[in-house]
Amino acid sequence: MVRMEQTLTSVTQFSFSHDLLEQLAQETQESVSTLRAALTRAVPVAVQALAGRVSGPDGPATIWKLGREAYGASVLEPMAAEIHQGWITRGESLMRGLLGETYHFTALRIATAANFGLPAAERVLSAAAVAALGVIGEHSQEHNLTPEALATWLVQEGSSLSGTLLPETSATPAVPGLNSATASTSLTAGTWAPAGGGQTYTPPAPPLPARTPVRWQWGALLLAAVVLGYVFGNWQDLRFGADRNSLAATTAVTPTPANGTTAPDGQPGRYDASSGNYIYDTGQPLILHLADGTTQKVGATSTENRLYTFLADPTQQVDSVNRTKGWINFDRVYFEPGATTLTDESFLQLRNVASILKTFPTSIVKIGGYTDSTGNPLKNFQLSEERAKTAMLAIAGMGVDINRVQAKGYGGKYFITPNTTPEGRALNRRISIRVIKK
């Protein structure tokens, strides 16, 4: 219970019993005393981040629900390994979403102060978030608080932490979300939009750079004129084998790589010769706030956002007649060449998709595997089938009911672009997902 003379931060720190610390020590291979010292730094971060979250849309209800769930699961006591790991994963996802781009920096500072590795610091941050939720849930239940009353209390608790964990210096970038006032404004400065059981958040556009002082403008114009003169005077030398159309296609806002192109579905990207993969440009970053309180930082045209939008938008329905419609290509799932082994970076997107599917428990999806048209058609079909099953099992292994995920290989049957170039073949070697029931 959080008494008047105690704070959420102090109670959360005190909630780490010797048994919990021993469990944490076994997982991180660090000493109990070292972990206890690290928690004195991690817990205030978690409290302030949660206090900032209640200021956003649906924040009070989300934190109220998460707190009640955490307290109901007895997260402040030793748990079975499977349940314990599930909460640790949720805690990590929550902190990554709340701290955003500063997550790695915050964990690094904690690791440096505690003199242990970055994975241990991330584990401590996750444990701090889970414990804070448990204390919040206990306080909410004992005092029968509404989500709004809980939010008021939590904001007060966050504002009581007058000093930030990581002080700002001229050499250290500021850490948004650690100061409660900063956290509140950072969640409302962008654009929020309701979507299904959660929210999407698009960060505000970066401020325009300061205007160049007048005394430099003429010099800048003169330099630009010299550069343009050189370019037009040496046009043939600057082409480097590229034609005029490809050079004219580059934009001043976002330069397109020399081998850049646009996929048939309109998503830009480029062919990476070293890996043989097509690297998609997933668009402007935005934050998905899922109904279970977790967040994902993804691109506006990413697989995650397209899947989430389809599931959340009631106006978008499954086409049960034309089953070739509705397929969404994974833009960050790759396999080792000619094999069914997923690359390491693929698991992040598969984990994101699994999290989205878990927030839409009635949905059923199908995973499609495809190859290019080179080689033996039968072997290509078998390879695509095994790759689709591998992706399906990976998603199921991340907590999605296996009965909700189907897999099918199509080989080179449904190519989306001609197989005449390495770039085209890379586009055709893909894994896709289609919602077959919402």
UniProtKB/TrEMBL annotation:
Any Gene Ontology CC annotation: membrane
Stretches assigned to the OmpA-like domain: 322-438
Signal peptide: none
Presence of keyword Membrane: yes
Domain of life of the organism encoding this protein: Bacteria
The keyword Membrane is annotated on this UniProt entry: yes
Naturally occurring in which organism (per UniProt): Hymenobacter rigui
The name this protein goes by in its record: OmpA family protein
Low complexity compositional bias, start-end: 252-264
Record key words, sorted: Membrane
Region (Disordered): 252-271
